[in-house]
């Protein structure tokens, strides 16, 4: 006999859960509404968004959903993501042949897909708008489940074909139903992207279990358990407390086969206090490491967790965590784990968004910065990838390229707790997509030049679904519930608190309000896409 009645044990997670609107399973489906036009941004104003963020949210989800479709955002044959797709620079349409498609992807894009699917499984009406816009009300959970089933099958098949990856995913070629590592990832696997995927799946397992989908939940749990068993073997390699940024391996040999060798590639270690930390947590909890090694995971990272004051352009001082570039991408981990349950982390995070929004306002920039694809050239090709975009004065890498802004830079602002964060984040998103060509038949466009002379005629998971996942509240509440069941939640809080409180004592600038955009992207004569005019 268990010490408690089984029904109580089953109820416990629900009782412990913090209820958020995005996860309210019982919310009735919204009444049918007239469909917003593709070019809906000009129909809104900053004050209409601030007064009623949900109207813009609905329109955003309705159109971003056109990206997460077979042949555009994912491969119908296997349920796996495509990185993104080039658009015709005049019409804004993707080539039906797939000619401009990035027929490759990575665990990070999978993480975004899994997060929104988990939210749909958990019953979110907003997620349903994104995941299954054409399904009858109430069917989105089923649609999401089918995609999760296809994905799991594909991951297992990949593992069977390339056992050396230990269940983890490299960048993969998704041209055919059976995927393989892309040419530049043969025998190599990245830690950061896989950390993002693992916790997204962890949240999805919780959502599936709550829905009573035991079999599918069990299948995914099996994949997670396999990744637990291999995490240290593959990634815990750089000496005491070291985690490989990229591990090298023989992809044809099973992890325990004779001759298999896992090594860190070069000297690059995953020791950042940003999104790479998701892999650190996986190793910490599930890597089977000794106590001394577990502690070393955190001491190895300490040098990069730094407190810094932003004070320029008449704003500040505001205390923030020093960024690598201070790109919004660096805040990804907040989508996935319950960091906000540690008050000091929530306060530092909120300060970061005070800085991000007020820095752009003070400099007269019509948007905010994050690592993103550069604009496309006259032949329709992406010019390059701009990693080094953020806020230079409060980053380790102050050499930056600040000529391009991207709608997804708002996702951390959207996550700021309370209604204000979402409303201000959406106001910035709207301000950017007001720019010519910044809306297309698949929602928002990748990026645009601050001077309004060019955009990136491209759409991708990174530049869209980070914002969508943030609007859905991420999966940190699902992850939290499962962490409690697994008995690791308290430890997460304890370590997170300890590491931050040793660096951050007094925070300045907590009275500063989030800033709203004032500048607009100049109209230099670009024409909106004809398929979305
Ligand atoms: C992507 O794959 C499809 C086949 O599914 C092919 O038609 C298309 O040309 C490929 N795109 C690129 C850019 O290689
Ligand atoms: C995928 O594999 C096919 C067949 O080898 C190759 O032609 C294509 O260029 C590859 N695509 C990518 C994105 O790696
Ligand atoms: C992955 O492949 C290995 C080697 O074939 C196998 O032993 C293992 O069970 C597979 N993992 C999963 C989760 O199926
Ligand atoms: C981005 O494109 C601009 C031209 O629009 C170019 O000057 C700049 O060097 C490019 N940067 C990268 C990283 O591609």
Automatic annotation (TrEMBL):
<keyword id="KW-0732">Signal</keyword>
<feature type="signal peptide">
    <location>
        <begin position="1"/>
        <end position="17"/>
    </location>
</feature>
<protein>
    <recommendedName>
        <fullName>Endo-beta-1,2-glucanase SGL domain-containing protein</fullName>
    </recommendedName>
</protein>
<feature type="domain" description="Endo-beta-1,2-glucanase SGL">
    <location>
        <begin position="80"/>
        <end position="532"/>
    </location>
</feature>
<dbReference type="InterPro" id="IPR058773">
    <property type="entry name" value="SGL_GH162"/>
</dbReference>
<dbReference type="Pfam" id="PF26157">
    <property type="entry name" value="SGL_GH162"/>
</dbReference>
């Amino acid at each position: 006999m268990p010490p408690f009645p089984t029904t109580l044990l089953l109820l416990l997670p629900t009782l412990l859960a913090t209820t958020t609107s995005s996860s309210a399973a019982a919310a009735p489906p919204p009444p049918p509404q007239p469909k917003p036009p593709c070019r809906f941004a000009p129909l809104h104003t900053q004050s209409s968004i601030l007064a009623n963020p949900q109207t813009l949210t609905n329109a955003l989800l309705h159109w971003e959903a056109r990206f997460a479709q077979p042949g555009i955002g994912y491969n119908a044959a296997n349920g796996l993501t495509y990185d993104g797709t080039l658009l015709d620079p005049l019409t804004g349409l993707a080539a039906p042949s797939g000619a401009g498609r990035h027929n490759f992807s990575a665990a990070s894009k999978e993480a975004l897909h899994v997060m929104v699917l988990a939210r749909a499984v958990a019953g979110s009406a907003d997620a349903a708008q994104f995941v299954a816009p054409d399904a009858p009300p109430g069917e989105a959970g089923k649609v999401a489940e089918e995609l999760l089933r296809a994905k799991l099958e594909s991951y297992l098949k990949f593992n069977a074909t390339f056992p050396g990856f230990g269940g983890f995913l490299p960048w993969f070629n998704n041209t055919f139903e059976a995927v393989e590592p892309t040419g530049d990832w043969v025998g190599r696997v990245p830690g950061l992207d896989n950390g993002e995927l693992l916790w997204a799946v962890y949240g999805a397992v919780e959502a599936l279990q709550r829905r009573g989908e035991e079999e599918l939940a069990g299948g995914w749990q099996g994949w997670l358990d396999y990744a637990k068993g291999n995490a240290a073997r593959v990634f815990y390699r750089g000496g005491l407390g070291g985690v490989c940024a990229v591990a090298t391996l023989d992809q044809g040999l099973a992890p325990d086969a004779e001759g298999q060798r896992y090594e860190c590639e070069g000297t690059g270690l995953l020791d950042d206090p940003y999104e790479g930390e998701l892999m650190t947590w996986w190793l910490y909890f599930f890597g089977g490491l000794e106590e001394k090694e577990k502690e070393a995971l955190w001491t190895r990272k300490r040098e990069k967790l730094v407190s810094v004051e932003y004070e320029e352009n008449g704003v500040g001082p505001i205390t923030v965590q020093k960024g690598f570039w201070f790109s919004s991408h660096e805040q990804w981990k907040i989508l996935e784990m319950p960091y906000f349950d540690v008050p000091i982390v929530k306060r530092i995070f909120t300060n970061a968004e005070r800085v991000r929004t007020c820095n752009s306002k003070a400099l007269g920039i019509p948007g905010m910065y994050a690592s993103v694809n550069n604009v496309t050239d006259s032949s329709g090709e992406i010019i390059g990838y701009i990693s080094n975009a953020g806020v230079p004065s409060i980053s380790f890498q102050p050499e930056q390229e600040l000529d391009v802004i991207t709608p997804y830079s708002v996702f951390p602002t959207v996550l700021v707790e309370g209604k204000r964060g979402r409303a201000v984040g959406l106001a910035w998103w709207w301000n950017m997509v007001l720019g010519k060509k910044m809306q297309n038949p698949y929602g928002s466009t990748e990026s645009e030049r601050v001077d309004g002379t060019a955009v990136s005629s491209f759409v991708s998971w990174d530049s869209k679904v980070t914002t969508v996942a943030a609007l859905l509240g991420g999966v940190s509440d699902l992850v939290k519930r499962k962490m409690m069941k697994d008995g690791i939640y308290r430890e997460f809080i304890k370590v997170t608190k300890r590491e931050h409180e040793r660096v951050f004592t007094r925070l300045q600038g907590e009275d500063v309000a989030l800033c709203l955009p004032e500048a607009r992207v100049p109209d230099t004569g670009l024409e909106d896409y004809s398929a979305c005019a």
